[in-house]
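Request: Could I get any protein with tokenized structure?
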Amino acid sequence: MSTFLAKSFETIVAYNPGEQLGDDYLKLNANESSQEPSPRVLEVLKNAQKLNYYNDPFQSKLRQKLADLHSLEMSNILVGTGADDVLDLIFRTFFERGDKIAFPKITYPFYKGYADTFGYEALEVPLTKDLHVDLSDYEELPHAVLVVNQRPPLALSMIFQT
């Protein structure tokens, strides 16, 4: 290991993006599509200008449209360059080293990696026999609970009641 690399990275297990069967397979876990971009998209890209400039770092237009669509304030909308980017922002913004982070044992694989990277205590909570989350299992757990809906790799949904 490098003498410059933070010690917290020495025990991190590399992320496995799932089984990659080759180019003859469509990998749904990688958000790949069998469809080519529409001709309209290709035309827009061909004529795009100013791609050499940074766009609005706050994604104001997108956030405002999403806020309007869901009757929220723009300040309640967070967008990123993908789920991993948003999770990274959430982990670094809301949790402190040593915090306990609870999540289902079978879930989005980056939770454990992020917990290890940032020095959080990962609490992996078992699923029920029918592979669902029992929210009562999380009632006494500090600091944060992370639950993805729909849950990869199981593709099961749940309805939350408050």
